[in-house]
Design brief:
Distance between the termini: 40 Å
Largest sheet: none
Shape: globular
Order of helices and strands: HHHHHHHHHHHHHHHHHH
Radius of gyration: 21 Å
Number of strands: 0
Helix content: over 70%
CATH superfamily of the largest domain: MFS general substrate transporter like domains
Number of domains: 2
CATH class of the largest domain: Mainly Alpha
Strand content: under 5%
Structural class: mainly alpha
């Protein structure tokens, strides 16, 4: 019973944060319409979300075991519950900044704690894989659900009604808090290892390795592309495809569904096909989508779109780029971690989180700049540049890991 209550809390945690973390594109769209900010100003919300994740994730790696995973999750849920209420009451661009700041801090606490708690709830590797996969899958479902949830609270006759969704999200956070608070977690006492200074020096030493430098560059480029598209797709759908706001938001869910399917497929394919072949094909197909499918989507406008059935084929086609973007990030993470000794996995994970957050922020800011200065119909075409650089980085990464991996395999 206690185990089930805790599992429900973990699922609820990830479900709520999937909606909040990936609602930044929706809030950027609403901020431009309601709060009088331009594209570049609105894109700073990505910074408020990603930077706390990077900073807090790095810090909690050292002292989180001392305060306990359960307490850390309760703190995160409490913070985000008050932040959602604050967004409902404040209903301003300043409130949105504070919301994503709180979401970033809370998610850093939640993510590290959830991953650690899964180990406490499982006894075998198969159980661990099953629970981890189902929770991560629930995260993707939460993202998709969020793009239908926000339109449910959106009303053209009442522009302020959309913030009511944050009352529901606050209630879900409180519900998860109650489940977790009432559950007992048998946390094994851990003797603190290296301090913050030691952790930092490990990360600095890692940065001196060419393998890590190339990987960090590749991860940075990928997240820059992915986050840029994810954040600005609702605005693209409304401005370029001339979709009503609710449909523009709902159409973005196709991207997240394709990302989920792409990761599941890649997980099976990598058992039989070289990771480099998979990444090469995926990156090249993503470039093809930008070069040929995106222009078709831009020119295939139709008037009086009232439902999803009225949207032309190419309007659906471009979000399917997620199928090809999806396998890249987990595969390059796996490649570099497998090539490093296990004692370096923790500081390497810190680098992954930090540079992913920076890449996501810069990607969103860059696309926001392009939306404003070159136009919404041309902004996404510039993603070809980092995609080509990412392809080259993967070729170099394969060459470096070809010799290193066998050395660390034992």
């Amino acid at each position: 019973m206690e185990s089930n209550r805790l599992k429900i809390s973990l699922y609820l945690n990830y479900f709520v944060f999937a909606i909040l973390l990936n609602s930044v594109g929706i809030v950027i769209l609403k901020s431009q319409k309601l709060y009088g900010v331009d594209e570049v100003q609105a894109s700073i919300l990505e910074l408020f979300k990603d930077m706390p994740i990077a900073i807090v994730s790095f810090l909690v790696a050292s002292f989180l075991p001392r305060i306990g995973y359960r307490k850390a999750m309760l703190i995160g849920l409490a913070i985000v519950s008050f932040a959602c209420i604050g967004m409902y009451v404040g209903n301003s661009f300043g409130s949105a900044k504070l919301l994503f700041l709180a979401v970033g801090v809370s998610f850093a606490l939640i993510k590290v704690s959830v991953y650690s708690t899964i180990g406490l709830l499982t006894n075998t590797q198969q159980e661990h894989n099953s629970l981890m996969s189902s929770i991560e899958g629930f995260f993707m479902f939460g993202i998709t659900f969020g793009y239908f949830l926000f339109p449910m609270f959106n009303s053209e006759s009442n522009p302020e009604s959309w913030v009511n969704v944050y009352l529901l999200l606050s209630l879900l956070s409180i519900l998860s808090f109650v489940f977790l608070y009432s559950a007992k977690v048998d946390e094994v006492e851990e003797i603190p290892g290296a301090n913050l200074a030691d952790d930092f020096m490990q990360m600095v030493k890692l940065m001196a390795k060419l393998l890590v430098v190339v990987f960090v560059f590749a991860a940075f480029l990928f997240v820059m592309v992915e986050q840029g598209i994810m954040t600005w797709l609702p605005t693209f759908n409304e401005r370029v495809l001339d979709l009503p706001e609710n449909l523009a938001i709902m159409m973005t869910s196709i991207l997240f569904i394709s990302l989920g399917v792409g990761r599941l497929l890649a997980g099976q394919l990598v058992k039989k096909i070289s990771w480099l072949w998979i990444l090469s094909i995926c990156i090249l197909m993503a470039i093809v989508m930008v070069l040929f499918v995106l222009p078709k989507a831009i020119t295939s406008k139709v008037e009086n779109v009232q439902s999803l059935l009225d949207i032309p084929f190419y309007g659906y086609a471009f979000p399917m780029v997620g199928l090809f973007l999806a396998p890249i990030y987990p595969l390059i993470n796996s490649v570099v971690l497998s090539a490093l000794p296990k004692r370096l996995h923790s500081p390497m994970s810190g680098l992954i989180i930090i540079f992913s957050a920076i890449g996501g922020t810069l990607g969103s800011r860059a696309i926001g700049f392009l939306f404003k200065n070159v136009g919404a119909d041309s902004a996404f075409s510039y993603t070809i540049i980092p995609l080509v650089m990412l392809f080259v980085a993967c070729l170099v990464l394969e060459r470096l890991t070809r010799n290193v991996a066998p050395e660390n395999a034992g």
